[in-house]
Amino acid sequence: MVELEKYSVGVGDRFAVQAEAQLRACQQIAGRGVEVIPVWNKSNREHLIVGSEPASVRIAAAAAVQALGWQQPWHVDADHIRLETVDRFIPHSDFYTIDVADSIGKPAASEAVKAFVHRHAELAREIRLPGGASPMHPPRAEVERIASKYLFAVQEAAQLYRHIAAKKGEDNFITEVSMDETDTPQTPLELLVILAALADEKVPVQTIAPKFTGRFNKGVDYVGDVAKFEQEFNDDVCVIQFAIATYGLPENLKLSVHSGSDKFSLYPAIHRALKRHNAGVHVKTAGTTWLEEVIGLAESGGAGLALAKAIYTEALAHADELCAPYATVIDIDRAKLPSATTVAGWSADPFANALRHEPHCREFNPSLRQLIHVGYKVAAHKGAEYLDLVKANREIIARNVTGNLFDRHFKPIFLGLTMCVFDNRKRSR
Predict the structure, then answer these.
(1) Nearest alpha carbon to residue 213 among 190, 246, 195
(2) How far is CA 85 from CA 164, 248, 258, in A?
(3) How far apart are CA 100 and CA 353, in angstroms?
(4) What is the pLDDT, as a whole number, of residue 328?
């Protein structure tokens, strides 16, 4: 079976031109003694917006692997896939993020729920988790309530898994199940019920993305109670260890943190949990690469800065359209978005400072950053004008892409080091 390694990172690349820069960050962390495996991910929605094909992700990744002589594993993720869109990814992906968030709460057949509860009498007794987590004592009625809420979604995930397995062979891909893009977080007990149901359906899930407490907005820091998240994350790790031992799920099963980019306040907690439990993790950084491209264009001045300003201006004019698909994972204060006239007067530094996620910088603007994050459609419409300038400024952009991943994500998550601070003279220090 294709196995996902202990530490992995989902690296999105909207326009398929930063794979080498992303891979260099993996080489740098490997030089510090930690293997972090790249998983290039792109959803069907992103392909439709950009006008690309799934083959382009594997082609770009393979070229980067060859150019840099990468000898470790790497993967290509059909991100947030559904039954109606999966087939175009089959020849090109070996990792499938099965998204069933929309099916949560849809009622499963009452007979199926009753059968599940009867089959899993252990869930209605005291559950002693490994790793120091507090025991759980759920009543049978609570187990039945949870099964009623999630069993249909699990059945949907199983249907899609079997469809992929029939096309590719069950040993030729990695399965992730995603339930994060919903309004209500899953409790550790709910996660355990979901894992038991996946085991019943014989889905060899290797990573699961639950909805955690708090807000995981695109490209900005976590909003919520960090201490509560840390307790929840630790409990979820313990639940996974219990589920592996009890239900025979893959031994490398681990948590996946979606919209995990730039959650700087959570990285110390995640690092502590990984060390405490000797656990793995998959973190999706997704659209931060696109943001680093725009930052690099702004810093390059001239035509690059002009194009960065034009992207913001058009995104501002079409904010409703751009934000709608991402409503559950962004939180933009429209009153804090600078006018197009204001941005037109900016030099390179104010633009880059407003966009770069530097929490202690007075010029940093989280609302502007989130708008540009979801505004890659504007750049896609510009076509060659955008791509030609990105290629012309590849060095400055690559330094931003690599530095962002290594200094601001990999170091705090995997090494437990303080997040690096950027400046405009050295790119990083």
Answers:
(1) 190
(2) 11, 30, 20
(3) 37
(4) 84
- Compute the distance between CA of residue 363 and CA of residue 419 in angstroms, rounded to an integer: 19
Look up residue 103 and give its two tokens.
Answer: 């099916």
The set of residues, in sequence order, having a beta carbon less than 8 Å from that of 263 and lying 6+ positions away, is 216, 221, 222, 257
Q: How is residue 420 annotated by DSSP?
A: P
> In the predicted model, is pLDDT for residue 106 greater than 90?
yes
- The DSSP secondary structure of 251-272, one letter per residue, reads TT-EEEETT-TT-TTTHHHHHH
Residue 424: which pLDDT band, with cuts at 50, 70 and 90?
Answer: very low
Q: How far apart are the first and last CA of the chain?
A: 41
Report the alpha-carbon distance of residue 145 to residue 189 in Å, rounded. 11
User: How confident is the model over 281-314, as pLDDT tens digits?
Assistant: 999 986 799 999 999 999 999 999 999 999 999 9
**Tokens at 249, concatenated:** 């799920």
Global pTM value: 0.95
Looking at the chain, the domain(s) classified CATH 3.20.20 span 7-284
- Are 86 and 163 within 8 A, CB to CB? yes
Q: Which CATH number fits domain 7-284: 3.30.450, 3.20.20, 2.40.70, 3.90.1720?
A: 3.20.20
Q: Which residue is associated with the tokens 């004019």? A: 317
Closest CA relative to residue 18, chosen from 407, 401, 406? 401
CA distance linking residue 23 with residue 268, whole number of Å: 23
Cβ-based neighbours of 13, under 8 Å, separated by 6 or more = 19, 22, 40, 42, 57, 60, 289, 290
- Please provide the DSSP assignment of 170-234 as one string: TTS-EEEEE--SSSSPPPHHHHHHHHHHHHHTT--EEEEEPPPSSB--TTS--BS-HHHHHHHHH
Handedness of CA 409, 286, 5, 216 (dihedral sign): positive
Q: How far apart are CA 244 and CA 295, in angstroms?
A: 43
Alpha helices in 225-301 (DSSP H): 226-247, 267-277, 288-300
Q: How far is CA 223 from the centre of its chain?
A: 16
Q: Are 268 and 417 in contact (CB under 8 A)?
A: no
* Alpha carbon 14 to chain centroid, angstroms: 14
Q: Are 206 and 252 in contact (CB under 8 A)?
A: yes
